[in-house]
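queue> holo job accepted (adenine)
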Amino acid sequence: MIIDVITLFPQMFQGFLMESIIHRAQKAKLVRINLHNLRDYTLNKHRKVDDRPYGGGPGMVLSPEPIFRAVEHLEKNKSRSHKILLTPQGKRFTQTKAKKLSQEKRLILLCGHYEGFDERVRQGFDWDEISIGDYVLTGGELPAMVVLDAIIRLRPGVLGNPTSLKDESFSIKGKQLDYPQYTRPPKFRELTVPDVLLSGHHQAISKWRQKQSRKRTRKQ
Ligand code: ADE
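queue> job finished
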């Protein structure tokens, strides 16, 4: 899978891409992530990417030209990419959506900033507009990282143990939440591990976990 990210702040991705599972996935060539600075696609001397909105009003609007040039450059002589626009107006991102996107060959993610994009950016390409939640962030970079993380971990080979995908919250039918987990020691300060988990009785453990999952799901 190849993912191109168009952003004004490629540096924001450094920590995310250079650590842990996402770093390992790239080293193992399970995913390739290319960062592209939107300023590199400007044609003006000052590398300006935005301008004042027609009709007045606060803030700045991202100009169409560098965005068109960036996307056209990335798609030149290549198979078409699934193109994602990160905006608070988009459709809410879900685990189901992450699964669908994890099956794509090529993705382009465009991170917005300021008061948004010139509307012609929406008209120029077939975008899948995604929001990560009903709140407004200063830009699309954090949302892009959220989407990348959720997608990459679903790619075959990225997580060591594939059964860890099978049971997790939001994957299993009916969207039940995870059951509580414990590890050693059996007693930490005054807090103990439920006896059933120490019993070695697999059927009883499975029943207990199902019950706990249901309880957590009801509470939410
Ligand atoms: N850009 C700013 N806020 C956002 C959000 N909630 N989701 C996606 N992109 C955004």
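queue> The chain has two domains: 2-152, 166-218.
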